[in-house]
């Protein structure tokens, strides 16, 4: 019901939204919760397990009951706290976990059988038969017990992530946080003030409190305005700091545009804030008292009721009762009464206490029962003078305040029990650089909070070396003592609820203790207390008290469970914002990408690169036909392939040769300028890391190539080797992969093709196999290497990347005139298989130079990375799985990578690469086989049981085509 | 977690790649025994407390040694692998 006041709402701007299809009218500034309360809606959700009717309990992010779904389709957001969702015109809100409707929920039958669903029922009931768990029990439980659902549509990926740095992060903008921020800002520090609510002020917005000579809310607005005007202050509103991490890093979730219709602004932003110091001024959370039927809609926290009253001008009922164990009950009665709300009674659990007012006050009182089917209608009370049955439509509970210690526990800190306030307070220094202050540190009066904010900021500033100037004067404020006599539970018949979100009762906790789950962590897992999305913010301490009572240990000795980040649920879409698709794995495109796509080539991933698979032509029915044709181009005319994606590292300096000698297993310093050498790199453990070529462009200038996938790894490896082992060598290197476009030109007519694009004729006799030099193409300086990965007469020509597209088009057009053309990854693979050349399919990290028959490349004349380990006897054992070539015996049989090679003793090896060789007229492959090279000529059975392939294969030497290499070297 | 790159200053953990214990810097000389290589390659302590890690600052390519506590994740100091001071 709406009453006077409410400084968050603008009564001139009504706003309509829908709740389960029903149109609700609120005002600008309302939350879904305050608007529903104003409209008299009390039933807002059904509980997780028993589907009990539930209403609003809090006014903040700790709300356990009022979880709703907003939006539809890609914009659908389940488990939104109605207390945090501001309304906007056209907002669609749905209640959750009910069928067919919120008021008639068929699954409420769970509540009737609740004696069978108590603590540990999952573990006890659904044990047998085992096979039923996945197929019967779990799906049934998931249907019956649940939260909101996703639409199944791909979520609109519109959230953002952001990074920020500051001297001081102030978490919370209540009296403590505002004073801390003012103190630090006036001293010149770079300040970020993050606050969960729409506007700064914290509890000052929710109470009738004077600060100085003005209302607290006005003081807060003035302080915030001063801060907002300062260039060294950033205020993040609607921003919840969700986690404290190593090194002063904090996570924070900003609700950027959830308070408006979806538009251009991102709905949420996940911040990573690196703060040199931080002040935790997150305040405190009010807790309940566990009395029978304390979960009826209409029963909520007294502090929440004051928030609803002062912030939004609404009351939870027309005739409200108040029950509590501290002086907040009288403050609540006064505030509501002043707004014209009838106070049914005030029930004080303490004997001999009594505040003044025009309402009945019961002392030593206990609520022992409540009535009302879908909302509270009556209350039964035991008190010092007997019992009473009273009518009320709302019951406000004040069970005391728990400091919001959560962030101080995120790095394994344990809060400390403070008997004086009957609550856990942060352990000092639990998070390095984070100072808890104000209510979050257990100091509850407004005056204490204001002073503590100055103190905490002062400590932080001193550590940062700021001199304290312009320190704000402390305004006058109430300094009333916090007068609590803890009462956790009311012992009376009936179920008394602790964790409202997971439906945990005091009986469940006692039962856990009885079944020897006496450790707090065991109790938590057995009962699921505190394991819901609110992490038991409003119920954990009561549950600990019940456990302490049941075990006779006391609360301090019982201890707490571990609070973990995030403090509030963070959507994965916000935490991982921008990291979907290409944001997760960026695509690297070669200079020829557009030309390849224009030719219809399917592009496939090779690491982050996209490479052409094959170039289809009219009339070709499948990729194999295209591939076979492209192999023919190279074997019979001239083919052109883009090899720009291979890693290129430019190595320069007088000691470049010595450096490469140490990185490569074979020698490089003896290479003459103008020559190219194949090189093998090992890891220090003696296994092959990568292979490639090193071209000596000048005395002090090498160009090293790596495989496409290993380029980054090789670069990091070379940096490590130089910095760690060879710091005194005069050598420098840099990745130039993206700087050069490079094309393989291969085939019997390769020279003819190159002659057609080179500016000046080349004396081919002067370019023997494995030589290199400068050329000119269309007036552009380029490089030419005579190397071959196809086994044909082959060259690779390189030009600066921006000319790559043009050169590729020119080469391919001329090749096509000559009966050749472009070839893709598939043909490249077949060509190299025919020659027995290796890729990372073979150099998969578990093979040595010995295994691939390159033991002879390991230099005896010098030390190199991997030399020591490569000599270990186990790595030179002839029975190791070693490289072999394979040929299918029957022309129609396939060889597939991943298949096993079966001999007399079972699986004796495996296939790493395979393909159809049009040149040899059958399937060929490479693989590893025990004693491999000693077994050429053997016939084995190939089996792939996944793809149901079985074939006879002959073991042959790798590279059956032109084994002498005459075509390549000629 | 934040780590100080000797060249670039303090940066977020995600700019760094981890490589293991700084023992990898003490490479046995050529001809060392199999036992020495075994130690160098495979045997590592698992301390609860101070340790020395190798990290690479990916944007600048610098390798560095971080003195880190395995129990608190606190990075006490860093130095460049190449001739760097803490």
From TrEMBL, chain A:
GO MF annotation, one: sarcosine oxidase activity
Keyword Metal-binding set for record: no
GO biological process: tetrahydrofolate metabolic process
Family matches, as InterPro entries: 2Fe-2S-bd_N (IPR042204), BFD-like_2Fe2S-bd_dom_sf (IPR041854), FAD/NAD-bd_sf (IPR036188), GcvT/YgfZ/DmdA (IPR028896), GcvT/YgfZ_C (IPR029043), GcvT_C (IPR013977), GCVT_N (IPR006222), Sarcosine_oxidase_asu (IPR006277)
Keyword Nuclease part of the UniProt annotation: no
Residue ranges annotated for the SoxA A3 domain, each copy included: 494-578
Keywords: Oxidoreductase
One Pfam family linked to the record: FAD_oxidored
Domain Aminomethyltransferase C-terminal per the UniProt entry, residue ranges: 882-955
Similarity comment: Belongs to the GcvT family.
Matching PANTHER family: AMINOMETHYLTRANSFERASE, AMINOMETHYLTRANSFERASE, MITOCHONDRIAL
Name listed for the protein in its UniProt record: Sarcosine oxidase subunit alpha family protein
Organism whose genome encodes this protein: Kangsaoukella pontilimi
From TrEMBL, chain B:
Domain of life of the organism encoding this protein: Bacteria
Pfam families: SoxD (PF04267)
GO annotation, biological process: tetrahydrofolate metabolic process
Any GO molecular function: sarcosine oxidase activity
Classification via InterPro entries: SoxD, SoxD_sf
Protein's name in the database: Sarcosine oxidase subunit delta
Species for this entry: Kangsaoukella pontilimi
